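Bug #77: duplicate submission created two jobs. Keeping one. Sequence:
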Amino acid sequence: LRIVFTTMIIFISLSFFSPLLEARGLRDVDRKKWKIYIDPRQNPSECWADAEPYKIIRNGRSVFQHRDDMHLHTSFVPSENVIGQVGVVSKHKFKRGASIELIIGSEKFKLEPVGNHALPKSVSEDKKVVRALKKGSIAILKVTNPNGLISEYMFSLGGYTAATNAAASKC
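Kept job's structure:
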């Protein structure tokens, strides 16, 4: 009975998570802190380097939260002339009036929320963010909601340069 139960749990887990990636047609190329994804349904492909936070702090206290609730990524979509666009994706929409800031070392970048995404204001700002990400070791995404709740998501930048270079070369 235990073997049947364990087998059912594994099967349910695989059947839940595998189709999510397969349905999207995504391939996970790297298994380090930064992962590379290629969407072969697009011609040419869309590629991006992506990371989840290693630590989350809410109002000054470390909290446990599903780390896949927030992602930091750099995208490459050559057919749309998108080369190295930095962005944040959340499982949930950002609240209207939320302030979103990406802090890398001593540099701070404001991101514009659009639904559940947040992006730098311009292509030139994107380039500055990418340069800072390549030089830095940690990125902190600071989200301040209108009600005053402050959430900070810490991302390791170890492997960022290699991952973005690999994603760019795949597209």
